[in-house]
Amino acid sequence: MTFSQLKQKEVINTCDGARLGNVCDLDLSPDGRILALVVPGPFSIQTVFRSDGVAIPWNCVSMMGEDVILVTLPGGLPGQVERGKGREEKGNR
């Protein structure tokens, strides 16, 4: 598999079904082994002009299919907020 093919695969967290994005980079060891997949970090206005990514350790990769890469991240990506959580509802102040 080439890096071009790897970049076309979407990364999905099997713990919560979250789409984490497509692979944008790799973290390699000095001898060329893959240490981590890098996906774009959570969007914020502060990261618009930076190309920061979040590393997913290679040992968290569960399976690679034709279109997707399944990973197991029980806590999700750092900075990721579950839908419906992290926001205060009106009237609960």
- Spans of at least 5 consecutive residues whose pLDDT stays below 50 are 81-93
How would you sum up the major sheet? 4 strands, mixed
- Give me the count of strands: 7
- For the record, the CATH architecture stands as Roll
What would you say this structure looks like, in words?
With 93 residues, the protein is mainly beta. It has one domain: SH3 type barrels (Roll). The chain has a four-stranded mixed beta sheet with strand order 2-1-7-6, with no helix packed on it. A three-stranded antiparallel beta sheet has the order 3-4-5, with no helix packed on it. It is globular, with a radius of gyration of 15 Å. The N and C termini lie far apart (52 Å). The C terminus is likely disordered.
Supply the key terms:
mainly beta, SH3 type barrels, four-stranded mixed sheet, 5% helix
